[in-house]
Amino acid sequence: MIRARLVSSAQAWHTAVSSLPAANFMQAWEWGEFKSRYGWRPERWVWADEVDPAGGALAAAQVLERRLSLGPLTFSVAYVPKGPLFRSHGDAIPDRVLADLEAQARLRRAIQIKIDPDIPQASRGAEEAPEQTHAEGEQLAALLARRGWRPSPEQVQFRSTVVLDLAPTEDALLGAMKQKTRYNIRLAARKGVVVRQGALTDLPTLYRMFAATAHRDGFIIRDEAYYDAAWGAFIRAGLAQAFVAESEGHPIAAVIVFFYARRAW
Fold it and tell me: What is the CATH code of the structural domain delimited by 170-264?
């Protein structure tokens, strides 16, 4: 029998979440603690087999809840960023998890609960390759529809992304790129561009570049304090690393990479 329990230990949560296939840094303990600074209350659930608890987590969900008021009315909204996480995608486990999340949402008078499990529904191996559907994604989508969930018109996270296998050597990865991309990478090195690991002191530089990019490309970002808190928390926890590209000692590009379990973003 599958039973849900609340987790209050950071180490226990990390052990459970990192054991699941689609573990994401937005399901990390640190993400919940960070969001708690901005009006969200994290609640962390793990589902396990009651008969065989030593078998480990079957599913997990870090639920962020925000209480809101409208005149005399008090209600909440709930969000499971990049979750729930499932060990397998047969109907039994996801069905139980969804039922528990729905029950908790009703109990807390939530007007909505939003989830975005990081499970591929379709993909293509190359830009010109035909799209391939994934059985587990299709199965979960069908289960959600049967339970009355519906796609949100407002996506919080990116719906599509690129996944790169880092197991091959650097030469193999470069060889898989387009010729022009390889040329530009090598040209930057010949022009003296160097990439170094960034530090907490580089965060203002990262934000200035981010803000300039947002202004140029026309998308909205939050204020500097928000990103400084998020980036700083994950860097201090060893779950993120900034990289800065410089030309003649001047920063010209930067990126921050998040690490969790077996993946990086």
Answer: 3.40.630.30
